[in-house]
Design a protein that fits this description.
The complex is a heterodimer of chains A (207) and B (98). Chain A is built from 8 helices and no strands. Chain A is mainly α. Chain B is 77% helix and 0% strand. In chain B, helix 1 runs antiparallel to helix 2 and helix 2 runs antiparallel to helix 3. The interface between A and B is large, with 56 and 58 residues.
């Protein structure tokens, strides 16, 4: 039922005003319901990592603070702005597809992929500079958590490219263009964004 | 005054970037130096992250229009995660002597 409502809404809402659309969209799950099961499972899994990190950190705060000084807060901020911007362009992609502007939607998802690649390259650059400086997975507890958390996150970014590829495939032909599948890809990508927001806070900024 | 979905997403993006810069400022400008233990900075940073995550859920992920169950589940995850992080920080902090 949800699928039918969601798909129908995607094709028909172009002529509605904002208030009517909001009312019509009320109680509609964005994307396929299954993706939300995955998002919540991933969210709880990462939360357990975050709490374990916090407990270990507080056992030896001096080591963690000293190690944090080896990270570039500026690069962390740039990473965050890049991912927030990629989330914004993906939200625009969903809106454009819903309005039937598939060319603009394709441009928006392409921008999201580009920003995802920028994030990936900057993370690899950060890892290379750290390992060249002798700061590896086994250097100390902080860097073990740093490589584990950023590595698990980057793995999800790479999987996100598969989701975005499916969105591009959907948008490329009038024969496909399922609004529900496009929203599913967007939901996964936004998950990558909010997980990074917490990783950035815990690894780069907290004191 | 109603705003378009497009304008709303731009405002959301701008707000998220602005509070990211506040986090940056918190990480670099406090009295005890940038890399000294600071509970106020830590709790503020966790609070700011929680606000950003909720905004991403509500606005970018369109949970504001989703069924109540999904709204409540996302809020429950966020509330539990923040509570667990803050509890882990506050409970273990005296042991660390900070």
């Amino acid at each position: 039922m949800t699928n039918v409502v969601s798909a129908g809404l995607g094709r028909s809402s172009g002529g509605l005003n904002s208030k009517a659309e909001t009312e019509l969209r009320a109680s509609v799950i964005p994307g396929q319901p299954d993706i939300w099961v995955l998002v919540l499972l991933e969210a709880f899994t990462f939360s357990s990592y975050f709490v374990v990190y916090m407990i270990y950190r507080m056992r030896n705060p001096g080591l963690y603070l000293h190690s944090q000084a080896q990270l570039s807060l500026q690069l962390g901020v740039v990473n965050t702005i890049v991912l927030l911007t990629s989330s914004w362009s993906m939200a625009r992609c969903v809106q454009s597809a819903r309005a039937g502007d598939y060319g603009i939607a394709l441009r928006d998802v392409s921008l999201t992929i580009l920003l995802g690649l920028v994030f990936t390259v900057s993370k690899l650059f950060e890892w290379v500079t750290k390992t060249q400086a002798g700061l590896t997975f086994t250097s100390n507890e902080f860097f073990m958590f740093y490589y584990f958390l950023t590595g698990m996150h980057l793995l999800h970014v790479l999987m996100g490219f598969v989701f975005l590829g499916v969105v591009v495939y959907q948008l490329s032909s009038p024969a496909r263009r399922s609004q529900e599948v496009i929203e599913t890809g967007a939901t996964y990508w936004h998950m990558i964004d909010f997980l990074w927001v917490i990783i950035f806070a815990l690894l780069y900024v907290m004191r | 005054m109603a705003i378009s979905a497009s304008a709303r997403s731009v405002l959301t993006w701008f707000g998220l970037c602005a509070i990211t810069l506040i986090s940056w400022w918190l990480g670099t400008h406090h009295e005890q130096g940038s890399f000294a233990p600071n509970a106020a900075v830590t709790l503020s940073v966790i609070g700011i992250a929680a606000i950003k995550v909720r905004v991403i859920f509500r606005e970018f992920m369109e949970v504001r229009n989703a069924p109540a169950l999904l709204r409540h589940l996302t809020d429950a995850w966020l509330g539990l995660s923040v509570a667990a992080l803050v509890a882990a920080y506050l409970i273990t902090r005296p042991l660390a002597g900070t």
